[in-house]
């Protein structure tokens, strides 16, 4: 039944045809993370004002006294000016893409090494000491989320940054916790949107056979944060994870484009609501960056980058996709013998493509 549900969900996603499509483009020249000279591995968003480049903007000429405003105030004014002057089928939005803090799955991968993690340990719910099924944050992960919290407050106080008009979050526990630690308790500017993130299925991590990618049921998620809305159509059980097949990058990009289509040009996301926060995962953020044409930029756990996106509707119908490519993944049935770069199953534990965890 689980595989059938998975197939139905994927075919429904793949075969959808919209009356219009949306073309996404990254608008460069405004953030350090857009530039090839910026090294993602050493990038510290807290040291460089979220990466916002110190520069003038065309819209500055419409301000009476631009020198009295902060960089973020002038940039926000520029984004608003673009939206005001653009056709109705064009929308500019700044997406604050935040990766969750360190989860128990991240700690376990470091402990076991990536080869052993991928081909055996990740297919279990835990090891008796730690649990990484729908992994929660470690204490280090909580600290990383609190760094983001404190930096947001600093930007509010010193830069008078416009805080997000909309908040979105993946349904996996580590992202829910990260969003909560990051935004709860901030002293928001008067008139700011309340932090009450919308939980969206398709902002989840790339779906592999790892149990850390298997979400809890809807009831569990609601009970964690009962005040937070969950999108319509969100299923009680996880219909996208089965422990057998893994989502390819191409398949993930299809759903990333679909969920972006749900963020842009909606009644909740009118042009004036030009700043949005998305708390998600490294793989999903990488997919979003591909969809919007941004250069590859890997985020450390707990990191946040804004990207400026131009979205434009066009009248061409989206071509029907008959299937979305997923792949079966083999794994050991006992702890592997590993090398630095590869995994070797013991002779008594030949690789299989059936789940190690059966209570799914």
UniProtKB/TrEMBL annotation:
InterPro entries membership: His_Pase_superF_clade-1, His_PPase_superfam, PGM_Phosphatase
Top-level taxon of the source organism: Eukaryota
An annotated Gene Ontology molecular function: phosphatase activity
Signal peptide: 1-19
Keyword Oxidoreductase applies: no
Keyword entries, A-Z: Signal
A single GO cellular-component term on record: cytoplasm
Protein name: GPI anchored protein
Organism of this sequence: Penicillium angulare
């Amino acid at each position: 039944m689980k595989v059938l549900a998975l197939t139905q969900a994927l075919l429904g996603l793949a075969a959808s045809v919209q009356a219009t499509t949306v073309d996404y483009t990254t608008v460069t020249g405004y953030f350090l993370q857009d530039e090839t000279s910026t090294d993602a591995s050493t990038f510290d968003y807290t040291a460089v004002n979220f990466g916002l480049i110190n520069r003038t903007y065309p819209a500055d000429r419409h301000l009476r006294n631009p020198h009295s405003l902060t960089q973020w105030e002038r940039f926000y004014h520029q984004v608003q000016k673009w939206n005001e002057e653009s056709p109705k089928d064009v929308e500019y939005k700044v997406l604050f893409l935040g990766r969750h803090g360190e989860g128990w799955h991240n700690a376990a991968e470091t402990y076991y090494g990536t080869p052993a993690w991928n081909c055996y340990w990740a297919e279990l719910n835990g090891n008796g000491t730690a649990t990484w099924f729908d992994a929660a944050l470690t204490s280090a992960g909580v600290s990383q989320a609190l760094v983001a919290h404190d930096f947001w407050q600093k930007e509010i106080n010193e830069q008078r940054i416009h805080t997000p008009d909309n908040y979105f979050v993946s349904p996996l526990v580590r992202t829910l916790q990260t969003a909560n630690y990051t935004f709860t308790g901030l002293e928001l500017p008067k008139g700011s949107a309340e932090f009450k993130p919308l939980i969206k299925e398709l902002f989840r991590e790339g779906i592999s056979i790892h149990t850390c990618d298997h979400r809890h049921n809807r009831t569990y998620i609601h009970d964690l944060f009962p005040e937070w809305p969950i999108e319509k159509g969100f299923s009680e059980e996880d219909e996208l994870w089965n422990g057998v097949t893994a989502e390819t990058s191409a398949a993930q990009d299809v759903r990333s484009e679909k969920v972006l289509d749900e963020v842009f040009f909606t009644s909740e996301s009118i042009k004036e609501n030009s700043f949005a926060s998305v708390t998600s995962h490294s793989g999903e953020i990488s997919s979003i960056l591909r969809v919007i044409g941004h250069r590859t930029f890997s985020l450390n756990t707990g990191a946040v980058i804004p990207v400026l996106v131009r979205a434009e509707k066009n009248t061409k119908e989206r071509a029907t996709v008959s299937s979305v490519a997923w792949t079966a993944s083999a794994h050991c049935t006992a702890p592997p013998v590993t090398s630095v770069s590869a995994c070797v199953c013991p002779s008594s534990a030949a690789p299989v493509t059936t789940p190690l965890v059966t209570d799914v």
